[in-house]
Amino acid sequence: MKGYDMAGSEKTVRVLEKVHKANDLLAEENRGFFAERRLFVVNVLGSPGCGKTTLIDATRRGLEGIAVAVIEGDVAGDVDARHFAEQGVPAIQINTGGGCHLDAAMVKQAVADLAAPDDSAVFIENVGNLICTSGFDLGEGLRVLCLSTPEGDDKPLKYPGIFRGADALVITKSELAEYVGFRFDDVKKRASLLNEELPVFEVSAKTGDGMEPWCRWLAAKMRD
Amino acid sequence: MHELSVAESALKIARRVSAAHGNVKVTGIRLSVGSFDHLDDEALCFAFEMLADETVCRGAAIAIERHPFKATCGACGEKSESEGIAEVCPACGSAELKWEGEEATRVVSVDLDLPDVNEGV
User: Fold this and answer.
1) Would the CB atoms of B114 and A11 count as touching at under 8 Å?
2) How far is Cα A27 from Cα A176, in angstroms, rounded to an integer?
3) Considering its fold, how many domains does chain A have in total?
4) CA separation for the pair A15, A171 (Å, rounded)
5) If you count Cβ atoms within 10 Å of the first and of the last residue's Cβ in chain A, which end, N or C, has fewer?
């Protein structure tokens, strides 16, 4: 007998709500705050050791006449924030204490404490991770994925989400490509399977190769 | 372990739905996992169970809908589905593929254990 269960009934409530909705709302708040202060915010993603900090540092030097501040995200320690602070760059360190990504709430707090003058470029260095960092909007204006040549040119096939969500791909440590068998054409082709118009830059922060076109492109984005 | 933050958000949503119905017990939650969110079912269920203990969601069954990646071939127009990102079209061998998928992870529905059979919907 169906339909006579007096012990109670089940009701299914349709929700269809994004699990990251709360984060997305905070990210929009951040975006509003950045717009008010005319801050151009770049979320820098990539694996641990791919050269995010070095890229930010070299980019900062290449962006002549533009004030730069940084927010550093790491599981622990303040090595990166200290590195920038020692050079007079306003820097805040976020420690996630085990968390594998930054979220909009952490950035909201950090940016409130960051002594970035209006009209600055703010680089947020995310936690080194190719998996979930792309799922969390921080309110940034530009999302840059950093991939170093020793990691291999097959990464778009293995971590499709992060390539799909990027606004630019910067291949770092280009001077090592010949030693590690990294093929630029292959990574570009593979990334374009997921993100057709993705601009790709090849740079070596060590030799300076490729930094000029990358910085020029970024500066043009800031003026847009 | 980014499943933890997804489980945390799902739990919040489910508890909110329960609260809107008099804090009744939640018996099930249906999640739709975005193709590009790379979430592990087992880790997600484990995280949820851990967080749901001591809440109205304790013991709730988690149903997970997964969505394969979808490709369209720019050369022959073939549409295909796969669990992974293939580099060439399975029909014509062209590399002009465009991969897409379900974009976001969502809570689809929440099942509540209502005390009254005739409670309105």
Assistant:
1) yes
2) 37
3) 2
4) 41
5) N
